[in-house]
Design brief:
It is a single chain. The chain is an alpha/beta fold. Helix 1 runs parallel beside helix 5. The radius of gyration is 14 Å and the shape is globular. The protein contains 5 helices and 5 strands; from the N terminus they run αββααβαββα. The longest helix is centred in the N-terminal third of the chain and has 19 residues. The chain has a 5-stranded mixed beta sheet. Helix 4 links the parallel strand 3 and strand 4.
Amino acid sequence: MDTFLKNVIELALKKAKKAAKIGEIPVCAVIFDPLKQKVISCAVNRTERDHDPTAHAEILAIKKACRHIRRTRLNEYDMFVTLEPCPMCATAISFARLRRLYFGAYDIKGGAVDHGCRIYYHTTNLYVPEIYGGISESRCADVLTDFFKTLRGD
């Protein structure tokens, strides 16, 4: 794994931990330009703050990136997200034509890449990014586990 991707992962973990402190499920998505080694957008879940069930980190990062580069296609860019995307986010990643998807923790219950409905395996899906799951899996999973333990009062 190259140094830049490691830095992107560290940024995502740091932001996810901050999201947990304000009561959001600690998921962070970072969209970056792998050639210029530059972060284009970064977002955390804001479903509670915005009272919006669609305010997932991936959706917010895609919107921010598209506004930033003034295009609807992100085919030159990659995304790292701390948790396997849900069906809504996996579909949005496909629609945005992100080049690569890297994700950390697997989501057996709500994920849609390697679990659940496995969005990218359907013939009706128009675009599939390169997918790399389980990147810094234990560290990403620990952030989520700690959040839910705190929430339950364990």
